[in-house]
What we know:
Helix content: under 10%
Number of helices: 1
Number of strands: 5
Radius of gyration: 14 Å
Largest sheet: 5 strands, antiparallel
Amino acid sequence: MAPTFSLVNEVNATKKNWALRVLVVRAYETSSRDNPDEKSTLEFVFQDMKGDRIHATVRQALIETFEPLMKEDLIGEVVGREILRSKEVSNKQTYVMDIVVQDAE
């Protein structure tokens, strides 16, 4: 049986088991303020099949792990997650999550 995927707008802290199928629509890196030649983060914007988007940041310590995956138009599946913390921003609940992504192709 094919897996059932959730949409980005369905992501919340109360749901325990879900998977997202997303497209990387934007991938870029940021530089350190102190040293412009040093990468500070990798940034990704993921989009689901309905067009909703979610942003992800890869911190400096994990850049070497994720940099080979940094390409636009890659379709991936979020297959695991852990919510680290949540907070309200502009009257909308936001979450900081640790996620596991695998290539869907």
